[in-house]
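Field notebook, page 658. I keep forgetting to write these up properly, so this time I am using the form the group agreed on. The chain and the ligand, GCB, are recorded exactly as supplied. Prediction of the bound pose follows.
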Amino acid sequence: MAVDMAVDLSRDFLWLCALHLCALLHGGHTQEAGGMLYPRESASRERKELSGLWSFRADPSANRNEGFDRAWYKSPLATTGPVLEMPVPSSYNDITQDPMLRDFIGWVWYEREVVVPSRWIQDAGTRVVLRVGSAHYYSVVWVNGVQVAEHEGGHLPFEADIGGVIRKDPAVTCRITIAVNNTLTLTSLPPGTITHMSDSTKYPTGYFVQNFQFDFFNYAGLHRPVLLYTTPKIYVDDITVVTDISDNIGLVKYKVSVMGATTANMKVTLMDKYGHCVATSNGSSGVLKVINVNLWWPYLMHDNPGYLYSMEVHLSASDGQLTFEDVYALPVGIRTVNVTSTQFLINNKPFYFHGVNKHEDADLRGKGLDWALIVKDFNLIKWLGANSFRTSHYPYAEEIMQMCDRHGIVVIDECPGVGIKDIRSFGNASLAHHLSVMDELVQRDKNHPSVVMWSVANEPAAEMAPADYYFRTLIKHTKTLDQTRPVTFITDSNFARDKGAPYVDVICVNSYFSWYHDPGHMEVIPIQLNTQFENWFGKYKKPIIQSEYGADAVPGLHSDPPVMFSEEYQKDVLQRYHNVFDEKRKHYVIGELIWNFADFMTSQGITRVVGNKKGIFTRQRQPKSAAFLLRERYWRLANTTGKMPPWTRYPCELTDTT
Ligand code: GCB
């Protein structure tokens, strides 16, 4: 049924301007330039977590600008109106009973008062940094009414040095105010548009909706931890490591950048996992050589997966009067990644991705970071025998990436370039933003051994004419940022017309045969999947990953013969895809990632019954029948493609150490 909508582009434009203008009015980009090292405690660095309950208010005014007009950041939020208690980290959407808040579009305001240790304030040689792990989507941050940061984009961290502000009046409690706007525009990532409905016979005055073309709920709020951390005023700003192997020697090429001084003494020590020093170096760049190296191996490919060294950087420098010392310890996994025309090599051995696509998504907290959920998901991934996942469709929390490093779970790291379907989202402003998001993503994740490939987008309209320049530029830029990892994007376009595919290193293709095409007809899968693979490989002679495939299953719905939405149908679809994978993986198919690990929430629509049900686990992480099928398969694949340690040999349980 067609909905009669009045699309008023000029108003859409005004809305977009309001978003950016308020940012301009309230100060430019004050965000710290430079590195984005994960805040770790050390002898010279402290952390203060600000997770917990914050004061919260949505701004429902017609132009959503009341908070700026009335300067809500200037005084405690409770003095300018009613406030709710809101957990951080969490999406705000599912926390209350208020349908307005669940589907809210526009600015929401968070506030928290913090007691800052007086030592941090008194010692002018201490930098105090406020870090926001992820705020969806556009944020402005004030401390005691002074703007300290502004950031565009969810899923990635940003920070600000707030020392100057909190030292102005040490008697004042530090009040942090964060305004977050979830509006998606033609140039945001993901993109979206606002449609205003002006037909007063159908819609109330001022009615508008947010449109976007991706299949997950646009959860919003402070999704990851907000914290304060300290460094000395001369400090390790960034570290880049690139690793290589020569016979049994591991090479760790490193570069450290320092802020606050032009010269510094540096001592770099590499420790093994027992804390024994295995290599040292002086200087801000160099190569550490590790004899008899323990390589970083994927889970189920080696009996000691996820081996991490610790690279300790000790810095000592003077500002002319005082000497400052800084210590930062970076986990380092030594491994190589290479791609041939038919293989993906990790440490020069063929690696087959048998994994999942995920979402950051759960009941109540939406996209909010939740340790119980993270650990449960890793246990399920290992139970399943999966060795990899893709961060569909945006960067996941750094804490998750660190788990991948430790457990040997291989990651295809995707940026939020999802739903790029409108030709107006291929323009220069969109591209410039996309490039800077890749800057931020590579900056954040470049040192994770688990990350083996960047994905710059999911299912863009790659057949449109501007896609050629767009993806050529984007992929080239990403390769300049990181020369060690392959780059891809995920396609569902026609192999002959896809304008971005010539630039990728690995073809990643999504297909839903017998679901979105030929629904109910599983018999078409073998022929259509075979054609898909032959077409792509025939044209590009590049290795292929089936980056999505699957079918919805309502848990507990059974049918024999199988019908769509039953658990049996989901299993059968998977099995028929697997038969083709088994033939093609002898040649050039290098991986399969099920869509999806777990059921997840979407916006409401006639094809979704309380969200997307293609999970092999429910949203509450209980297995559907397909999970057992996949478990059988993945452990069998691990046995044939990996070097299995005795404790993991199928079908033994993980606890069996015989
Ligand atoms: C896709 C998308 C994914 C959707 C999935 C589906 O191709 O990449 O975001 O959720 O299909 O289930 O429709």
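OBSERVATIONS:
- The chain has a mean pLDDT of 93.
- The longest strand covers residues 235-246.
FOLLOW-UP: compare against the apo run.
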